[in-house]
Amino acid sequence: MSATTELSRKERERLRRREDILEAAKKVFAEKGFSGSTLDEIALRAEYGKGTIYNYFSSKEELFLTLVREGLQSFKNTVNQALAPCESVVDKLEKYIEVALDYFYDHQNAFKIISFEIHQPNSLSGVIQDELRETYSRELYFISQLIEQGVREGRFRITDSQRLARVLQGMIHSQICQSGCTQHDERSEAIETVKSIFLHGCLNRDA
Amino acid sequence: MSATTELSRKERERLRRREDILEAAKKVFAEKGFSGSTLDEIALRAEYGKGTIYNYFSSKEELFLTLVREGLQSFKNTVNQALAPCESVVDKLEKYIEVALDYFYDHQNAFKIISFEIHQPNSLSGVIQDELRETYSRELYFISQLIEQGVREGRFRITDSQRLARVLQGMIHSQICQSGCTQHDERSEAIETVKSIFLHGCLNRDA
DNA sequence: TTAAAATATGACCCACCAGTCACCAGTTGA
DNA sequence: TCAACTGGTGACTGGTGGGTCATATTTTAA
Fold first, then answer.
1. What does the alpha-carbon distance between residue B11 and residue B13 come to, in Å, rounded to a whole number?
2. A192 and A158 share a domain?
3. Which of A1, A22, A53, A82 has the smallest number of CB atoms closer than 10 Å to its CB?
4. Measured between alpha carbons, how far is B129 from A161 in angstroms, rounded to an integer?
5. What is the pTM of this model?
6. Is the pLDDT of residue A126 over 80?
């Protein structure tokens, strides 16, 4: 084995441990929230000692923030990739609803972490809270820009794109965490319903 | 002063202190969540000693649960009173959207407490968590029953009343906690938008 | 084979917090 | 005026949890 392969195996192992820890932390945070979770439990679940966690993350907050950052980034990438082939605004919105619901159904723990710490303003330190809020609002901004374009094209009955973005986000989020959301037809029914209500509710009839 | 007035003054004072404590607790819990809040801070905000709180509530959990219970009960009463004069299902739904948004805009702390502890399943003890969930799902059941009736009357394009109830709830919740939601026209615009999208999106055109 | 470097580990430290209780101020009733 | 009582109080306690560090273990390099 050459030196480079050696190094890369070490790198891989380090990465793997990091992932193990993140995975365990995701489960615990999703169940108990930030304040309710303990590093002891995360270490237990990850099957590492507590000290090990501090070889990979400098604090509980950094561990949490990493989860949020990587979760949102991964969601964003998925969305961008999915929307790339779409031409019209309506196509894009439909695709967004599909991909967002699919993603969050598949990553419910990530969803819980991202969504409920947003609603709990002051349990994290200021700077971190700000970054979190910032990233989140950029996500909202993405939808509202999409809608804004549709408004300019005269496709929408309602023209407050910010408000529409929020409404759509609320509709999507309402469908996660339902019982039995793992079944495939359950899921596609949810997708169809949200699409149908939002588009029927917002688009001009004569369009 | 007669003995009864004496007693009643004492009673009133006791009630007043209870309210003071609940009010302070509501603010703190709304800001920091259940796990993130401390009784010391609640006592400080209420301007009482920590020991005093235990003369009125047996534990942190009971204090929190009282807030949730009384908050939901008060909301329920407001809704029932508002919907009483309405005849048709559509009238009732419109009224519900109005009154729910108005109520939560006016009681944002209550809203935060009720909504985000629902999304954080395991930070409270089992029995309490169950009661909370139960009460919450009865609220959802109320809307879904309303919609169910509309479905039977053939007024709805979409017939899964449970799902519609969730969507509506998501739309309503998405509008709370926006910036500038204290202004009156902001608020009525939110109400009109939600009404408009939901009804346009769900009702049959020929109805 | 062994010295050195890297890394995992959990006992330990300290700050913090829910809950308690001995004390005290104010009120009542005689 | 005083004794009994009621009710607020915050210092105290026991337990807990984030974060540390000396030690143990494994890996690397010679």
1. 5
2. yes
3. A1
4. 37
5. 0.91
6. no
